Amino acid sequence: MIRLLLSRLAQIAVTAAILSLCAFLLIALMPGDPIDLAIAGDPRLTSEDAARLRALHGLDQPLMARYLAWAGTVLQGNFGHSRLFAQPVARLLGPALWSSLQLLGLALVLAIVIGVGLGALAALKPRLAPAVQGLALFAQAVPSFWLGLLLIILFAVQLGWLPAGGGGEGGARFLILPVATLAFAHLASYARHAASALATAMAEPHIRTARAQGAGESRILWRHALPNAGVPLLTLAALDAGSLVSGALITETIFARPGMGKLIYDAVMGNDFNLALLALLVVAIVTMLATLAADLAQRWLDPRLT
Amino acid sequence: MKTGLTLLAALVLAAIAAPLAATWLGHDPFLPDLFNRFEPPSATHPLGTDDLGRDLLLRLLYGARVSLIVGLMAAAAATLIGTVVGLLAAWRGGWLDATLMRFADGLLALPALPLLVILAALDPAVVGLPRGEAAADILRIAALLAAFGWVGVARLVRATALSVLARDFVRAARALGVGEVWVLWRHVLPQLAAPIAIATALAVGGAVLSESVLSFLGLGIAPPAPSWGNMLANAQELVFQAPLAALWPGLAILLTVLGCNLVADGVARRR
After folding, report:
1. Does A46 touch chain B (CB under 8 A)?
2. Each residue of A195-207: pLDDT tens digit?
3. CA separation for the pair A114, A190 (Å, rounded)
4. With an 8 Å Cβ cutoff, are B249 and A253 in contact?
5. Tens digit of each residue's pLDDT (9 = 90 or more) over A114-173
């Protein structure tokens, strides 16, 4: 278990290093650097000034040396300054990550509760199974940013019940629409998998034994079938982590909610690539750690997996 | 399966028939008509007009051409790359298999959207592509989506190819002295038709969805060329004046993705 954990952590570190190198090189190859921007902003700067500034900031060094210098400072915990927000990057990342995790956590819980509930309904009442399958198929196809837009139009513009966007310290009212949007996009796959996992679990011999011993249907479902169906659901959660994070990022952008997604989008739009790069790395590492956590939980639930 | 194919066929037909509809209705979907802004649905404008007085139905149909072409191109490229990689990994095994699959795992573990956002925002002029033309945008977005889309295909193809390569008829063919390339082409590939079809159908839906997200964020197909994504971006700015304009492009994306998922489901069930 410890060896597995260590090797997976090493894998995450390697992936993050490769990702940061690729992203750094791509960005460095773009025409125009901060000095060019400075020249554009101040016509009195001569080309000698520009060369001197480039040498001062190390921009005349070869790409690999620049990457290593950047990676070295980041590893020392110095994330540098955001040109766009005129603040240290570290101070921007903390609150944004917290806000994104709130949205993600609430949406995930809601998606699992409703999804597993629908799946249980389909597994226990075969008459309802086609309806649940149809609903899941439909929900899976709804583009989540469109759903968010429709919810804004209905609840914020037409009815005026809820805020259309914003948030941060604003409280629960700002969370309702984004959480609903994100949860709806992900409930479908949980419903489909829960239905099939529960159907498999309910056909096992130990369920028949429990029934023969006189256990009630609801006790059978909760005590005997669901724990067995939990493993495939955790597999799904591990596989789904990346798309859940992607979904959270677009949901944030639609609802103008300050979080990692909006931070990356604003940074990209504002040409602040140091911020974009670091925010991307944080998101990628958090996603990979979440996947790892789901994997470990799955092994803990089912010791047969090694 | 039938419903899915019918849906997709109807969408493709609508996209092909877009110029016909334009002549029939007598409007130009690209020409602003400032005397007819925000027209409600009527006989001349079946879905009404947008903020520049352009017919919404026609823009939806022309948008179908862009969105579907991006989706089909990205899915075709992803399928091709994924099939080659998956087949190669299963056939060679060893370190090549390990390297390719580790790479695929790494790519799959990353959240795709923020990566796509950053990559789509990079200046296309760096790699020598012209900037801001619709055709260049289409190629750029399709290439980006294919660069992420091949992973799912490769994993599915590899898993199935491994089991096919271990079957008796492959060993028999090899024993008869058939060349390795011919074994893969003639004996292994046909057995992979179903998983490849499933992966392709899912890839088309995924690519249409991703394209619309990128265009919605202003990083995909740039206006005035219509795509379902940038029509939704436009509609988002006009939620007060024309709330209905947000309905149709999203519905079109929904039907496309639904059609693709139904086809994939149907193929999977037939096996």
Report:
1. no
2. 888 888 878 888 8
3. 8
4. no
5. 988 888 888 778 788 888 888 888 888 888 888 888 888 887 777 767 776 666 555 677
Report whether B11 contacts B255 (CB < 8 A).
yes
CA distance B59 to B61: 5
Domain limits, CATH 1.10.3720.10, in chain A: 90-301
Residue at token pair 């199974």: A129
CA–CA dist A76, A70 (Å, integer) = 10
3-state helix, strand, coil in chain A (%, to 5): 80, 0, 20
Quote the CA–CA distance of B217 and B214 in Å, as a whole number: 5
C-alpha span between A256 and A164 (Å, rounded): 9
User: Judged by CB atoms within 8 Å, which residues 144-163 of A form the interface with B?
Assistant: 145-147, 149-150, 152-153, 157-158
Tokens at B236, concatenated: 């988002």
Topology annotation, domain A90-301: MetI-like fold (1.10.3720)
B226-248 pLDDT, tens digit per residue, is 888 888 888 777 777 767 777 88
Q: Indicate the residue of B102, B118, B125 with minimum beta-carbon distance to A280.
A: B118
List of chain B residues whose C-beta atoms are within 8 Å of the C-beta of residue A152: 239
Contacts of B169 by beta carbon, 8 Å cutoff, 6+ apart? B187
Contact A104, B225 (CB under 8 A): no
pTM: 0.83
Contact A118, B239 (CB under 8 A): no
DSSP B239: T
CB-based contacts of B166, cutoff 8 Å, min separation 6: none
Beta strands in chain A (DSSP E): 81-82, 87-88
